[in-house]
Design goal:
It holds the Pfam family FA_desaturase. InterPro entries: FA_desaturase_dom. It comes from Parerythrobacter jejuensis. Keywords: Membrane, Transmembrane, Transmembrane helix. The protein has a domain of about 120 residues. It contains 18 helices and no strands. It is globular.
């Protein structure tokens, strides 16, 4: 197959700043992504429901075990299991933003009742936000809620970006228990909370627009749910003491930290704000495909195929491995497609950190 882009020329452009604006689309790759996956793309409830339910069930059981057992070693082991299982259950929020509204009846409601509200992260915090990250003209620009040029920022920005996630459980309780009810009686507070603290975004300049239609109704009952649950958590300390809640907070802080590390390596973060072609967006995103099994732990529910997801955002997570296999085999060595494949988390962190030491310091 002939490729629009030459691999050597692509590598040369990637090695220099501002390469995204210069990179044309690889039309052969885009055609292959369309033609080779026509029989894929149907979200299968027989996969989604058991995966989500088992992950959540294991997570909650492990949290209960970590609270109840006395041995520190067993407590830590159960805490790790709980963090990983609840992390996988939480990541279905990403699928909810992309599956068609008529697919998987009841799954959004079930996920919110079992995962989103109990973990104070209801689906509205991602729905209507994440899709902006996939808009052709907004990805990587100041209008993208999920993009920061991390590879071009100062070296200290990377550890700060990761470690701030440890405060996520506390921030979510403050939001749900205090800011939400305040916003119900004080419109300026409500507007501020909605614009700044009601989306899972990393761009500090992002301001969320008011909800409309069906989203407005979902926001109401989900906000009510997290408000009631947050005060139930606070109230539990008067019955059981602070230890159980603090244990759960530590476990969920680890979950948030792991997700932040995954976010750090989901892209190369090398765009300087210009609009990008689909191919440039793809190459600024990351696949960590098999054979390594570890990526399935830190990038679950299809997120190890994040670059491929940017080519086909509506592809359900269970079809991404097969779509990747077909494209990788068809396009072959030296193709643009393989340019988004990376070996693992640590090489990616090292690449981004190295970039901050050179480009980031040069921009300071």
């Amino acid at each position: 197959m002939q490729h629009t882009l030459d691999a050597a020329e692509t590598a040369r452009l990637q090695a220099q700043g501002g390469w995204h604006a210069q990179l044309p689309d690889d039309k052969a790759m885009l055609r292959a992504a369309r033609d080779l996956t026509k029989d894929l793309g149907e979200a299968r409830g027989a996969i989604y429901w058991p995966d989500m339910l088992v992950s959540a069930g294991i997570g909650y059981a492990a949290i209960a075990g970590a609270i109840l057992v006395s041995g520190i070693g067993v407590k830590i082991a159960l805490g790790i299991v709980a963090s990983l299982a609840l992390y996988r259950a939480l990541m279905f929020i990403h699928e909810l933003t992309h599956i068609h509204k008529s697919s998987l009846p009841g799954f959004r409601l079930g996920w919110n009742l079992l995962v989103g509200i109990p973990l104070l992260t209801p689906s509205f915090m991602y729905e209507g936000v994440h899709t902006l990250h996939h808009k052709r003209t907004q990805y990587g620009t100041i209008e993208d809620p999920e993009y920061l040029p991390l590879a071009l920022m100062k070296p200290w920005s990377l550890p700060a970006f990761v470690l701030v996630a440890l405060l996520a459980p506390l921030a979510l309780v403050i939001r749900s228990a205090i800011l939400v009810p305040l916003g119900a009686v004080l419109p300026p507070v409500r507007r501020f909370v909605w614009q700044r603290f009601s989306s899972l975004s990393i761009n500090p300049d992002f301001r969320r627009k008011p909800p409309e239609g069906a989203m407005k109704r979902r926001v109401f009952w989900q906000e009510l749910g997290v408000f009631v649950w947050s005060w139930a958590l606070i109230g539990s300390t008067f019955v059981f003491g602070w230890a159980p809640l603090l244990t759960a907070f530590v476990i969920l802080s680890v979950t948030a930290l792991l997700n932040q590390l995954r976010t750090l390596v989901a892209h190369l973060w090398e765009n300087e704000g210009e609009a990008m072609t689909v191919t440039a967006q793809f190459l600024d995103s990351v696949n960590v495909p098999p054979p390594g099994p570890v990526a399935e732990i830190w990038a679950p529910v299809g997120l190890r195929y994040h670059a491929l997801h940017h080519l086909m955002p509506s592809m359900p997570y269970h079809d991404l491995p097969e779509a990747h296999r077909r494209l990788n085999a068809e396009l072959g060595d030296g193709s643009t497609y393989q340019g988004a494949n990376h070996p693992g988390m640590f090489p990616l962190v090292a690449r981004i950190a190295k970039s901050t030491m050179t480009r980031g310091r040069a921009r300071a």
